[in-house]
Amino acid sequence: MQAEDIIWGGNNKCEIKLLRDISVVAGDVIDLVYNYMSDTYEAKKDSETSSIVVNQVNRRTLDNIYLSGNSPATIVRVIDADDQNLIVEVKVFQDTINFNAMQGIEIEVGEEVIGKMRVKDRQDPIKYLNNAFKYNDMLFVKGYGRKGANFTIVSKDRALHVSQVDNVYVATNLVRYDRSRADFDNLFIMRGHVSFVNATKGASISREVTERMTKIVGGGAYFDIWDAYNDLERLFVLKQATENGVMEYTSYECVLTDCFEYRFHLKSSFEEPFPDDAQIDCTDNEEIKNLDRFDNSDQIRNIKPIHVGTFVEIDDDICVIYDRTGSERKKLSNQGFLYYSIAGDSVRLMRRENARNTILARECPISNLAMIIDKGVSVDKTSIHEQPITNMLLRKFPDKVFNDAQREAIEVALNTPDIALILGPPGTGKTTVIKAIIARFEEYFKKHNDNQIPRILVSSFQHEAVENVIVGLEGNGIPSNRKGGKRDEADKQTLNIREWRNHVTTKLSEKIEELTDGIDYSKESLRDRVYAWENKGKDAADGIQLLKDELEDNRLKLSPELIADITELLSRTSYTAPSKQATQEWEDDKKDEIISILNAQILSMKGYVEDGGKQQIIRLKVAIFNGNIECPNGTEFIDAVLNTKGKDETAFKKYVEVVEELRNRYKKQEVVATSIDNLTSIEQCLKRMDEELNKERLQRLENRDEATAYIMQKYLEMIQDEHEIQTIVDRYSNITAATCQQAMEVGRFASSHIYDLVIVDEAARANPLDLLIPMSMAKKVILVGDFLQLPHMLDPDVTKQFENDEKFESLDILKKSLFQRMYESFDDPSYKLRRTAQLTKQFRMNSVIGEFVNREIYSKEGFVLDSSDVDDSKKQANLGLYEDKPLVWIDADKNHFGLDEGKRSKIRPLEADLVIEQIKIVLKINPSKSIGVISFYKKQSEYLEKKIKERLTDTQQLQVEVGTVDAFQGKEFDVVFLSCVRANTIDIENQRQRVGHLQDKSRLCVSLTRAKQLLVVVGDRDTVECVPILGSLIQECEKGEGHYEQAE
């Protein structure tokens, strides 16, 4: 409110003259005070005072106001000022009600009042109310009683009604104010500590957020600060759910296309859809309608939700949700409610809390873990004195020569009584060291624990890092037991199992051949033939023929009872009963439809894309899903084609193979009528026959070697079934692999695990609260990571709260990873017991790239990245491009390639086009090169991905991976292109706005260390050269150490 907006209190104008200058100008508000001693009036502004001179008319006006005996409240506004001659307007009010700090009141403003504001004012309702109704610290009030129970606050065009309810002031209505009543309304001035408070649920959460932020910024004990952070995440989870509200549906249907597509018919129109890709739950519990009044996420969990899938759109009052991960249709209530799912977040936060409580209560295996984490203090001695390298370890790594730094890392990990930290820069062999530590620890543990096998957990902050570590890693001679994992990443575990199976098959086959010394095991066993029959769909005619053949070959080896049963079964299935004729005709029609579907499949990639192959493949998927076509492969081979739009050669080849197999199986053939009972009898007879033949075989084994070979052969047969392998892994593998979060089981049937050794890779990237989870389960913890690469993961909603808080810039506690905090605590030469080690020798990058990164990043932080042992002859791209230099700068100046575009995320299309042309040149020269394309901005990455699909062939696309830098840690490529994106004319003094993420040293570290042979950086030199690392790279290329090129 401005002074001129004070329209009440009359229009009492006076001319006055100041006797001294107190710097008054038109528009100022001053105080007029009567001085009883001198019988004059004085004008006051701030701390300055001046007596005034007035004529008789104006004196009479002032006396009527100030000397009437009613002690009125006044506001005096200067209308005009000419030197010290003023024209003022005196506004007269009934009284002033003052509220000091102890008496201050808050007026709660709820949804009903906020809903009556203009749309733009609802964005910040409290700011609007302060601007509209407050002049400095004054409010203008009508109808204020002695107890102040009900009153109305007015502005020039609005009136806010306020009531006192249970000693709480509540705004009850917001209406238009009739300004023509201004001269007739006798108002009070309410002054001092009076404030408006947002009383909506979201505002309540916001106040809690502010409290937690204050606690974090204020500092304190390590666990207390991260408790406050976890509370913030919990508040934002609830806020997300309450803000998105609830949709009520009256019915739904589910259809199967390339996923389960649910279509919910909404009871009423819903203006605000759920956020894109939001996960949606449903329930028939009407309590969910009170979601906006829920105080915690437990209330949502208690209504027993069912997860539906991913929100897609609202189309004509139909809410569309896709379930791409479920294997079957969900059983949902016909009527119910849809809402934003917080189930996954609740479990995640619960795991953190459980781990934290276990550690603080000293109930974890390392009893002083809380002290180690909070203070960096532990015992400075150990009872373990093991050598890092043994003959057994060297036998497991026959081709590996461990360097001094790797030996030291293994020794530190092996001999620590509780925790060890290994700093592993890019390309220094972290994964190999982790596997060596596991092997060496198993050897040590068996030696000191009566040959018992240790329980080991391998963990990391994300799934891909876990997968990278466990490839080829065996526990107790079998693959690691992978827990959790993304629903779409089962193929990686399957691949790991298959590699192990193939390796074991080769070794066992060699051993069997050695033991049997010429005995022929090449003949296919009955079990093999039964397994093949089952996989082909248990065709009755084939089953009967198999029984006939085996009975003929093995009649003398079988019991009379089994021979009689088989003979009786064969007699029952030799004809078709008249009563079955109608059923047989129906089966024939069904089979004709199946053959029609299979024959309609388009088995060329070109034809699939051009001739509507998607429609036909979906018909096949529906037929398999409904059980009309029996397919042991399920529908995964179809999903692989649909997800890649028929452009992935490997997926399409698999699809062709399965379709051809199905066609052969369902081709027209002589039908043998059989009932379900008879089919079961065939299976039972085959199983009994296999058991009797195996028993007879064991009885006639002549020696121990042959018996051993036979057992090996049976084991070999068993592990050809991947489900059998998984059962073995679940039961016998001593190595568990899981992300930090999924390492802990929660829920009613959860079991707690204690591990003899826990190793966490990429530990610097794990949120400290997540890292506590595997640490709380360990007798010994080894953390491996690199805090000079990408930082740990913080919730974006939480960090957004601190973006404009200057205190956060210096707030180290949230920025520094727990790995870095502990590494710095224990990396003290004065300690007798070493708990830290650094891997120093890198073998990934060409030495030119490695030395540049060491010089500009690692050595400046006091660490070493040594490239002296790199064989550069094996790290050359040999493309005949860029003078065959491994380090390249291509200057795409803003005059030719334009400025960057976008607000939060940036894009520079012409720079991206230039990168794609360079990729095409590389792949034309050498199609086998693996290429990584990194950008600091999601928009640029998305544009690059889109254009690469348009401009590169399907085969070329397989060689290229595009993404933001956050997705590239832990990966490596022959060639890397880094798109800088930023190109603008922003002043160099404002470096944050000028270069954005490019000034982030950790992101640059990851970007510059992914290339093995060739690193090409593309950008506008004029914009980005102010970034020290990029400036050094440009200068190095310009001087001839690398290649410098001006793009045109």
Give the key terms:
1048 residues; alpha/beta; eight-stranded mixed beta sheet; seven-stranded parallel beta sheet; 39 helices
Overview of the molecule:
With 1048 residues, this protein is α/β, with parallel strands linked by helices. The protein has 39 helices and 35 strands. The strands form 6 sheets. Strands 7-13-9-10-11-12-8-14 form an 8-stranded mixed beta sheet. Strands 25-26-22-27-28-21-29 form a 7-stranded parallel beta sheet, with helices on both faces. Strands 1-4-3-2-5-6 form a 6-stranded antiparallel barrel. Helix 5 (201-217) packs antiparallel against helix 6 and helix 33 packs across helix 34 (938-951). The longest helix has 27 residues, at 490-516. Residues 575-583 and 669-674 have low confidence and may be disordered.
Topology:
Elements (H helix, E strand, L loop, with lengths): L11 E7 L10 E7 L4 E6 L2 E6 L2 H11 L6 E10 L2 E9 L2 E4 L5 E5 L1 H4 L4 H4 L2 H9 L4 E5 L7 E5 L3 E8 L2 E9 L11 E5 L1 E5 L2 H17 L4 H23 L1 E11 L3 E7 L12 E5 L13 H5 L4 E10 L2 E6 L12 E5 L2 H18 L8 H7 L15 H6 L7 H12 L3 E5 L6 H19 L7 E5 L2 H8 L3 E2 L2 E2 L1 E2 L7 H27 L9 H10 L4 H15 L5 H13 L8 H19 L5 H6 L2 H13 L10 H8 L5 H17 L10 H24 L4 H15 L3 H11 L2 E5 L17 E5 L6 H8 L5 E5 L10 H7 L3 H4 L2 H4 L2 H9 L9 E3 L8 H12 L28 E5 L2 H4 L11 H17 L5 E5 L2 H14 L2 H4 L2 E5 L8 E7 L11 H5 L5 H8 L2 E9 L1 H4 L3 H12 L3 E4 L2
Parallel strand pairs: 7-13, 8-12, 8-14, 21-28, 21-29, 22-26, 22-27, 25-26, 27-28, 30-34, 30-35, 31-32, 31-33, 33-34
Antiparallel strand pairs: 1-4, 1-6, 2-3, 2-5, 3-4, 5-6, 9-10, 9-13, 10-11, 11-12, 15-16, 15-20, 16-19, 17-18, 17-20, 18-19, 23-24
Helix pairs in contact: 5-6, 6-8, 8-26, 11-12, 14-24, 15-16, 16-23, 17-23, 21-22, 33-34
